Amino acid sequence: MAPLESRKDDTADGALYNGHMLTQDHQAPPPPNPSEDLLYGIEDAPPWYLSLFYGFQHYLAMIGGTIAKPIILATFLCIEEDDPARGALVSSIIFVSGLVTILQTTIGVRLPIIQGGNFAYVVPIIVLLNTSFKPCSQVSMANMTVPEKQELWQVRMRAIQGAITMSALMQVIVGFTGIIGILLRWITPLTVVPTVTLVGLSLFDVASLKGSEHWGFTIMVICLTIVFSQHMRDVTLPFPMYKPGKGYYTIPCQPFKTLSLLLAALITWGLCAILTVTDVLPEGSGARTDKANTLIEATPWIRFPYPGQWGLPTPTVAGTMGMMAAVFASIIESIGDYYACARVVGCKQPPSHAINRGIGVEGIGCLLAGLFGTGSGTTSYSGNIGILSITKVASRRVIQYSGLIMLVCGVVAKVGAIFVTIPAPVIAGIFYIKFSMITAVGIATLQYIDFNSSRNLFILGFSIFFGLSFPKWFEVNPNAIQTGVAMLDQTIAVLLQTSMFLGGLIGLILDNTIPGTDEERGILHWNGKLSEDKQHKDSQICSPSFETSSILSSSFYSSPYDFPYGMDLIRSAKWLRYVPFCPVYEGFKRRSSRSEESSSQESC
């Protein structure tokens, strides 16, 4: 279901709108043409040095959004600025992102998609900390010993770990059992819009707080990003390439389209460092880069993240329920990314078994993130899908190399510590771009509904406004709910303070209970886009690397969504046709005849 296309909260910049859009007559887009212009197809394996280079580019594009989560979280965990734990958090999320990326590309959906931390988890985590613990501003740490300071933030982290871990189990179940297909029947555009939009809108105060430390540098990041991603996005530069049989050559590249936010942050960060060294910035300025010098010195070169490094997770009902909202938003957006990525790399649209397996593996990724104590769940990064379309390198091997780079950088602890030295105003600039794009992604889904319908306008306006305003009131009145059961009170408090949960729930209930035609609600247009693989099942597209001879020599179509090993054994077991995550999954429908399979192969 690709309502969000490749436009997701974790994209780095202007490369957000790759992929097809619905035409004005709302017809579903045609199947993708074979991507003959790809330098490397999904099954191709570039030389190791090129794979390393391309993989590092993907790493650079995703790292800015990934490290922002633990940097936000550190403030609410009461971790001091010179505490090496800040660097350890960054290293942990980089390490887990690499691990999940390799899992997803190997046994998951098997598309070349990067995995990383998700902003959708930030809001419920902040709510959980604010409702379960005393705010850091009210905690006096002056007379605390080092062990006491560690326990102060680690007990909070263990609560976050418990919430993410338990909610991840739900995602694993929903994915591997195929329940996701059933649940999506009630998820409509008017459910997705308030859910995703409120992820961005509800974080405006976090960005404002950090930006207030020096608005000049915050505005600089924003302005540079706008210039790079919008005004200079079509600027082309020669990019060196090599391909066996063709030798070295150059192709036009548009670096500002994919790396604009990273470039803007690096330029501003470098300027802050220069002004710090020359003492132009006064002592105590939020833009100085030397506030974490002791952190870098105290951080070891090598540190291996491991499950339970902050202690055993302590799940609570309230935390788990609140985190479900993040899981819900992540699932919807990730499915959109699968469809967008398939179009970019020239594959047929992902079948149900690949989607089920992809969501299930993302659940495993969130489970690992919770056990490792990263402070965030993981999800697909659509910004990197834009890089695939620009570089014309769609190799799965390249993404796996990027995952290996993340593993290495996650173990080299000083890398994480260096990222923590990014000044708060620079981080704020990143937040403003990121959060505004999250908001826009949610609003973009409105293309499917009828804007002339007063019914739709009411549901849309009320769900967003109430979802934004009521949690703010509840923050000021945390004891408004008194049921007499402490656990129930806390659960309700967490849910009612999570904007995206409240707005999405209202949109879900109203859109499925207030009478309206399917065309009015946008369901016809929505389903037309989500079922591309069904509409074009006789026009299956092969990756450029597929050999016709190998297809004809097999009684089954060799799909990029198949497992890398053991397919002959899987195909010989007829009962696996009913396992929702197996490549031969057919549900309980009649299996196609040999002639139908042959016809499908010939169309490839």
Q: Which secondary structure elements does this structure contain, and how are they paired or packed?
A:
Blueprint: H1 48-76, H2 85-106, E1 115-117, H3 122-132, H4 146-176, H5 179-183, H6 189-201, H7 204-211, H8 215-231, E2 237-243, E3 247-253, H9 255-277, H10 293-298, H11 317-345, H12 352-372, E4 378-380, H13 383-391, H14 396-411, H15 413-420, H16 424-444, H17 454-476, H18 486-496, H19 499-513, H20 518-521, H21 523-530, H22 532-535, H23 548-552, H24 567-572, H25 594-602
Antiparallel strand pairs: 1-4, 2-3
What does this structure look like?
This protein is mainly alpha-helical and 604 residues long. The chain has 2 domains: 48-135 and 152-215 and 224-279 and 291-446 and 453-525, no CATH class; 562-602, no CATH class. 59% of the residues lie in helices and 3% in strands. The protein is built from 25 helices and 4 strands. A hairpin with a 3-residue loop joins strand 2 and strand 3 (247-253). The chain is globular, with a radius of gyration of 24 Å.
